[in-house]
Specification:
Active site: 104
Organism: Caproicibacterium amylolyticum
Distance between the termini: 16 Å
Strand order of the largest sheet: 1-2-3-6-7-8-9-10
Catalytic activity: orotidine 5'-phosphate + H(+) = UMP + CO2
Pfam family, one: OMPdecase
Strand content: 15-25%
CATH class: Alpha Beta
CATH topology: TIM Barrel
Helix content: 40-55%
Number of strands: 10
Structural class: alpha/beta
Number of helices: 15
Oligomer: single chain
Largest sheet: 8 strands, parallel, barrel
Keywords: Decarboxylase, Lyase, Pyrimidine biosynthesis
Number of domains: 1
Shape: globular
C-alpha cells in the first residue's frame, strides 16, 4: 500500500479514476476507426475501448495516482475484452499509474490461489514463472472468511501487492446484510473491518497502513467515520463519489489527520465528462482531465491538504 500512498502524496491527489467503459461513452470517431479495422464485432468493440482507455490514461497520468479497471466491463467482450484489459493495465503501469483491479474475487484454497496468481502474481509454465494480469491491487469479497483471504497474503508480500476487502459497500441495499448486528453488538461490516486489521497486521508499511485495505462507500459517511476510527491500519478504497451521489463532505471522514488513509474513486463522471460538458468528441480526454482536477481540488480543499 505504500506505493499507492507515495503516489498520492507526490501528486497531492487522493483519487482514482475508474476505467469502466461502455461503448456509449466512447466518441464516434474512435468506434468508427475500430469497426473499420475489425468490423462491428467483439474485437472491434475491444479495440475501441483500448483506444479510449489509452487516450484517457495519457491525459490522466499527470493528475491521478491510480486507475481502477472494473473487470466485468472487459469480460463482457470475451477474450477480446480481456486482452484489452491486459493491455490497459500494462499501458497504465508504463505511465507510472498504480492499477487496482476491481474483480471482487472470492473462493478458497487452490481456487483462490489461482485468482491471486492471475490478478496479482505469476503462473508457472514448465518451470517458468510468468506474470499474468499483474495488477497492483485487487478487490476481494470476504464472504468465505479467512479461508478466502489467506491464499492472497503470501503473494501480496512476495510481489509487493495489496487487496481491498468489501466492508461497507456504496449500493443502497448493502445494509440488508452488512448492517446486521451480531450477538456481541457489532455489525457485520464492523466485524469484517476488524478482520481486515488482523489479516494485515504483519504487513504494515511506513505510513502505518497494511496490504489489506477495505472498500467503504462514500454514500455512508457516518460509517466511513466510524470505520476510520476503528481501523487505524486499514487503507480505504471509497467508491460512490460523483454519479452515485457522494461528495467531498461525505468522503472527508475516510481520511486521517495527515490527509491520508483513503483513495476516492470516480468512474462515470470522468469517462463521460466530454458528453456532460458538451465538448467536442475529440476533446474527450481533455474533458476527463478537467473533471479529475475538479474532483481533486474539491476533495483536497475539504480535507485540508495531504502531508
Amino acid at each position: 500500500m505504500d506505493r499507492l500512498i507515495e503516489a498520492i502524496r507526490a501528486k497531492k491527489n487522493p483519487t482514482v479514476a475508474g476505467l469502466d467503459p461502455k461503448l456509449a461513452y466512447i466518441p464516434q470517431f474512435i468506434r468508427s476507426a475500430a469497426y473499420e479495422q475489425f468490423g462491428k464485432t467483439l474485437e472491434g468493440a475491444a479495440e475501441a475501448i483500448l483506444q479510449f482507455n489509452m487516450g484517457l490514461i495519457d491525459a490522466l497520468a499527470p493528475i491521478v495516482p491510480a486507475v481502477k479497471p472494473q473487470c466485468a466491463y472487459y469480460e463482457q467482450y470475451g477474450w477480446q475484452g480481456m486482452r484489452t484489459l491486459d493491455a490497459t493495465i500494462r499501458y497504465a503501469q508504463q505511465k507510472g499509474l498504480y492499477v487496482i483491479l476491481d474483480g471482487k474475487r472470492n473462493d478458497i484454497g487452490t481456487t483462490m490461489e489461482a485468482y491471486a496468481k492471475a490478478h496479482l502474481g505469476t503462473t508457472e509454465v514448465e518451470g517458468q514463472q510468468l506474470p499474468v494480469f499483474d495488477g497492483d491491487a485487487l478487490t476481494v469479497n470476504p464472504y468465505l472468511g479467512t479461508d478466502g483471504i489467506k491464499p492472497l497474503l503470501p503473494i501480496c508480500t512476495e510481489r509487493d501487492k495489496s487487496i481491498f476487502v468489501l466492508v461497507k459497500t456504496s449500493n443502497p441495499s448493502s445494509g440488508e446484510l452488512q448492517d446486521k448486528v451480531f450477538a456481541d453488538g457489532k455489525t457485520l461490516y464492523a466485524s469484517v473491518g476488524s478482520l481486515c486489521e488482523s489479516w494485515g497486521a504483519q504487513t504494515r508499511g511506513q505510513f502505518g497502513y497494511s496490504r489489506v485495505g477495505a472498500v467503504v462507500g462514500a454514500t455512508y459517511p457516518a460509517q466511513l467515520g466510524e470505520l476510520r476510527k476503528a481501523l487505524p491500519h486499514t487503507f480505504f478504497l471509497v467508491p460512490g463519489y460523483g454519479a452515485q451521489g457522494g461528495g467531498a463532505k461525505d468522503v472527508a471522514p475516510a481520511f486521517d489527520e495527515r490527509g491520508l488513509g483513503a483513495v476516492i474513486n470516480a468512474s462515470r463522471s470522468i469517462l463521460t465528462a466530454w458528453q456532460k460538458t458538451g465538448a467536442d468528441e475529440k476533446d474527450f480526454a481533455k474533458a476527463a482531465a478537467a473533471e479529475a482536477v475538479r474532483m481533486r481540488d474539491d476533495i483536497v480543499s475539504e480535507i485540508g491538504g495531504i502531508q
